Structure formats: C-alpha cells, structure tokens
Amino acid sequence: MVKRHLRRSCAPWWWPIPRKAGGVWTVRPSPGPHPLEKCLPLAIVVRDVLRYAKTLREARYIIGQGMIKVDGRVRRNYKYPVGLMDVIEIVPTGELYRVVPHPVKFLTLIPISKEEANIKPCRIEDKTTVKGGKIQLNLHDGRNHLVDPEEAKKYRTLDTVVLTIPEQSIIQHIPIQLGTFVVVIDGRNVGKVGTIVEVIQTFKRRKATVVIETPKKEIVRTILEYVMPIGVDSKPIVSLPPECF
C-alpha cells in the first residue's frame, strides 16, 4: 500500500521544518527521481528554504503558476522531489540554485551563475543492456542515457557524467579513480570534499574503503558508494558551500 501522508515527526531529520509546530502533517514527496530520505518536496523548498511563501497554500500557488523550474523544466507539482545536484530556477527573478551536500544540513541550496546552471553532474548507478544492443546508463536522478556499446566501455558504475541542461547531452566524463576530486554525499562525513589517495578493495566494489585527502590535508575514510566525483586536479566543476572546505 502506497502511503499518501507523512507525519512531521517521521520526516527526514534534516528537513528544515518545525517538528512540534505547524500541525501533525507535512508534505510527502511524490515518487520520482530521488528517494524520500534524500530529497525535499518542492513546496518545502519554496516555503521553508527560500521563504518565498509563508504557508503551504501560498507555496502551492507559486508552484502552480509555473514560477519554478527544476533542471530547466517547469514543475507544477508541489510534491515534486528535489535532490542532489538538481538546478532550481525562480522564473520571475531569474535566481538560480543548486542542491548540494552540506556537512550539517545534509542537503542545502546555494546560488549559482547562469553559466553553471547549464550543466549538471550525474553519477552512474548502473549499466544495462536494452533492446537493439544499446547500453543504458542509469543515473542517480532517475535519468537513463543511451550510448553505443563501444562508447559504454569507458563508463563504469559510480563514475560521473556531466549533462547539459535541458538538452541532456554528455559533455564530460569524470572517472572515479586515484586523483579524482570527490564530494561525500552520504554517511557521517557527508559534505566533505577532497582528492582520492587510496582505494582499499573489498569483495563488493561499492563497499570498498576510500581514503580522501581534504584541502586542509585531513584524512577522511568512507566507502565508495558514498562519494561522487565532481572534478579533476583538486578543482570541482560545480560550486559548493564554504563549509565543505
């Protein structure tokens, strides 16, 4: 049975909503590109994060009028799930934001430039063969991208591909390997960034231990599944909060 409602007390801990005020219920995200525990409903983004509305009714009106774009497309569903690396545009003002990891808030929005809003890094979660012999790259935000078998050989799961928004063309490939600049997207070290200096392989590749050296020369250890490549030569291709460094 699919649940249609969500109690405030049961919402993910990092959501910026009061737990004992404002009623019993909150907005439950619709099924979509991001899981419930790693996304924010669009209404909460408008009301509680950006504070363009004081009530849910006002937030629903703003969204219903087509004033909010996600990844270059107008979204009118106030329950639409917004998650990692999504680009949010406020149409009337032209303001642009990206959803990025944060050491305290888990996920947060930061303002970005118009040039940066044209790209979106997506992590490859899986590769599957589809009818016709094509290889399908299954990305972290629910997108599927078809590539030729020969081209697919260079892509591995947990690598990052950079897409253009909204055309969705691959313009860059960032492999997960020694020397790659990564950001931790889950676990106790979420939001930390650095360069991979060692990978300790285990039976399952996703559970391999990754040793990361931060810009402050600190050592962070996590698992491969919790990191996302976002740049090379110690330089990220997207903006990140100062707290990450």
Notes on the protein architecture:
By secondary structure, the protein is mainly β. The chain contains 3 helices and 20 strands. 9% of the residues lie in helices and 38% in strands. The strands form 5 sheets. It has a 6-stranded antiparallel β-sheet, with no helix packed on it. A 5-stranded antiparallel β-sheet has the order 5-4-7-8-9, with no helix packed on it. A 5-stranded antiparallel β-sheet has the order 12-11-10-13-14. α1 (42-49) crosses α2. The longest helix is centred in the first third of the chain and has 9 residues, at 56-64.
Concise summary:
With 245 residues, this protein is mainly β. The protein has 3 helices and 20 strands. Helix content is 9%, strand content 38%.
